[in-house]
């Protein structure tokens, strides 16, 4: 009965305590990785994508915002614990245009994670041979400094870091 259940749960405690020692082996950084801010999705038709999330799925969807410095139109979809960023090309040199040429129906473009100190993160990441796609942070869709990490250095994922 109860004693058998307690004995069966004992190994779980050992596993959990061993994961604690694993985290102690992670070197401390001068900067801290924070929460997932958003997942960005490139879309070939921004109006249809807005309608899907607003009218079909019932999400709160922002107005379209042009970000000429990044070559994109953006729309944010609120999800409670994070956001989706819908991206559509703005101008001929938009990085989203080339993405959509390879992915005609659209798809996940990048993830955005908050950091507490973007300048220190840049310095440490460069020391660790992680390529940053700009020399200096640019102002992103939330009005905060952002940088992008090369996807080849991040297991095939384009990672955006945003100052929290």
Count of individual helical segments = 4
Given this structure, which CATH class is correct? Answer: Alpha Beta
The number of domains: 1
Question: What is the fold-level CATH name, i.e. the topology?
Answer: 2,3-Dihydroxybiphenyl 1,2-Dioxygenase, domain 1
> β content, as a range?
25-35%
Give the N-to-C terminal Cα separation: 50 Å
SSE run: HEHEEEEHEHEEE
Q: What is the helix fraction of residues, given as a range?
A: 25-40%
Helix vs. strand class: alpha+beta
Can you tell me about this structure?
The protein has 164 residues and is an alpha+beta fold. It is built from 4 helices and 9 strands. The protein has helices at 2-24, 46-56, 95-102, 118-127, and strands spanning 33-42, 60-61, 65-67, 72-78, 83-89, 107-115, 138-139, 145-149, 159-163. β7 (138-139) and β8 (145-149) form a beta hairpin. The longest helix has 23 residues, at 2-24.
